Amino acid sequence: MTDTDARVIRGVAASKGARRRLNGGGPRAGVITAFLTPFFLPFVLFYLVPVGYAIWQSFRVVRRTGGQYGTSYTTFGGFEQYGHVFENTEFWSSIGRIGLFGIVQVPVMLFVALIMALLLDTPLLKLKSFFRIAVFMPYAVPGVIAAIMWSYLYSPQLSPVVDLLQGLGLHPDFLGPGAVLWSAANISTWLWTGYNMLIMYSALQSVPQELYEAAKLDGASNWAIAWRIKVPMIAPSIVLTTVFSIIGTLQLYAEPAVLRQISSNISSTYTPNMLAYAVASGNNYQQAAAISVVIALITFVLSFGFMRLTSKRAGL
Amino acid sequence: MRNTASRVRLAAVAAAAGIAVLAGCSSSDKPDSSSAAASCEPAKGKVTLQYWNTVPGMDQVVALWNKKNPDIQVQTKNISNDQYGTISNALKAGKAPDLAQVGYDELPNLRTQNAFVDASACKEATAAKSKFVPWTWSQTSFAGTGVFALPQDTGPMALYVRSDLFKQHGLAIPKTWDEYAAEAKKLHAADPKLTMTFFDPNNAEWFNGLLWQNSAEMYSYSGGKWHVTVDSAQSRQVADYWQKMIDDKLVRTDLANGSTQMYAAYQQNQIASYVGAAWGYSMFRDNLPKQSGKWAIVPMPTWGTSAASGDWGGSTVAFMKGSKHLYESVKFNTWLNTDPEALALENKLGGLYSASPVGTGLPQLAQGVPYYAGQKIFDVFAESSKNIDTSFTWGPTQKTVNLSLQDAMAKAAAGKGTLADALKTAQSTALSSMKDLAIPAQAGK
């Protein structure tokens, strides 16, 4: 079993192997380079260059020649912008806010996704492709559109859901100070559960059927097969979806930004990305760049930290 | 061997990326010296100008100009979606248009980014001074230091009143803010489902209009420094008043201006008045057609006995840096904002309330408006416009201050803090944001 496990993980980390093979060369290296150019060119233009530009900007500061509307220019400022970021209490409270968001939303979403993937994988379920499409469907809706749709369902003036609950004597305030974070979390969960389910479901599909047959012969129930065999077998894909979700949480923007239109309980600095946007819209591009770099570093540390932690646990 | 070759290739790619990065920012390394007044020479031959704006129907106004002026053709682009982001990015890329629509409160910010060209070398531009409402001219010329834009429209404020609800509950038209609060109390006591108005915590622009009415001078410049008095006795009087309205539950705080939710609340007869600007007249007409005949517009309540009003919104058409055709830009800009035919069209298609007395004196504005029970509503706005404090100045980091003010206003509305705290927050944000952009500033006068 550990053998198969390792094989799957190696599949996930395929890029590592590919690089080693490329360096190992042989006469086909030129061909490989030719095939990779269409990838590397946009990668450099639209990924490396903007990232490099952001890092460069984050080390610059604005200076001015004086006068009421004096001429401005930028110059090298060392770590000055980073100093501002670390002193910025709004930045740290936005990090704390999405930390809380992630700690609750990510496990809930992945648990639901896992249950759905397992259900889809049982022979008991009929209309499999219908359910698969139905759960995956929200992912096809653009995030902003989903947020606008949900904001109507949350809005006390317009929502049939609120009307219905009020009819039952309940008075929910989805946009209130305590609830609005979870209303945003609900939109994210609705959007991304199907996507994560699909990754887990594909991993389940690649588990050899003989394992189940052997377990059944040993007298294992469907329940035991699910928890003792299927879940451990797809652990790498669960790790992968968790890493994606951590990254997604730190990038959170569309849902709170849309809810902000109808709720005054979402500030302009609600999430780190919203803060970066607000600072950039105040024409402080250099500080916005520093904020973005810090967000990227935190994302990097958290996602790789999580990967290392889980791979050590799994004894790999 | 192969190994080395691919490493070299990688290094080349990295170097190319580095060069691209360096090339991308070298333009902002040195202060540029284009702040001197530009010359005003007519071009030889045909000219095409770029004009970016957010006004509905502006393409038709421009089409009229293009028909009459074959030698100065104007191309428009609508930038309603992220107006200032688009302008700032274009400036950074050196691809700004000849002319762009800029709100009064955004002018100083763009001015500190060297976004404009001074058109005072053009006689027609300086001569336009007499054609505009004085406070608008003072803002576009930065109190006479040049001509960086021409005023387009304004938002003189007034009180929109649901006459039928007022009559039904025996309310009087309030002359002062104290009377307004008293009537609000009466109304809410008569029917708890009714409130006088709403306080939009997400709308610093509106709140600034209220501060403006009370002559809250928030920024001034002297002795080589900006002086920040966002948190002053005048502004605190306004903040404390609305804080009390919020505390006494006399205003709602759950509605955003212009939102579907706001119209729904008005549609359901839950709110009896609206503190708004001239451009709002078409909002109610178009979104609440069933309430035709029920609305009236009266002067904004005042703080004392003398008439005073604030401005909410309004825009200018700015001369953008990099324009190669200043002479032609001035010609078009002047026509756009002072010609009766152009102004009539802008009012009809875009709902603009002109910054020029020529525009506000148009015969079509002297008529009674059917939606407002035939009331000559523009007389009220014209009077309001006359009572706007001409010395009001926006800060050079107004957008950042507004965002911070809004966040703090929302906290106050949620019961965590007060509007007076919000002013304190805005004051400190004003100082810190100026420091970040190397603009010398100090607290107090």
From TrEMBL, chain A:
Question: SUPFAM superfamilies from the entry?
Answer: MetI-like (SSF161098)
Please name the PROSITE patterns in this protein's record.
ABC_TM1
Example GO biological process term? Answer: transmembrane transport
User: Know the name of this protein?
Assistant: Sugar ABC transporter permease
The organism's place on the tree of life at top rank: Bacteria
**Origin species:** Streptomyces liangshanensis
Q: How does it sit in the membrane?
A: Multi-pass membrane protein
Q: Which family does it belong to?
A: Belongs to the binding-protein-dependent transport system permease family.
Q: Where in the cell is it found?
A: Cell membrane
Q: Which UniProt keywords apply?
A: Cell membrane, Membrane, Transmembrane, Transmembrane helix, Transport
Domain named ABC transmembrane type-1: which ranges?
Answer: 95-306
What InterPro entries has UniProt attached to this entry?
A: MetI-like, MetI-like_sf, UgpAE/MalFG_permease
| Record field: transmembrane | 29-56, 98-119, 131-154, 174-192, 233-254, 288-307
GO annotations of cellular component type: plasma membrane
Query: Which Pfam families does the protein's record reference?
Result: BPD_transp_1 (PF00528)
From TrEMBL, chain B:
Sorted keywords for this record are: Signal
Specify the signal sequence span: 1-23
Xref: Gene3D superfamilies: Periplasmic binding protein-like II
PANTHER family, per database record: ARABINOSE-BINDING PROTEIN-RELATED, POLYGALACTURONAN_RHAMNOGALACTURONAN-BINDING PROTEIN YTCQ
Q: What is this protein called?
A: Extracellular solute-binding protein
- Recorded superkingdom: Bacteria
**Organism from which the protein derives:** Streptomyces liangshanensis
Lineage, uppermost ranks: Bacteria, Bacillati, Actinomycetota, Actinomycetes, Kitasatosporales
The record lists the membrane-crossing segments as: none
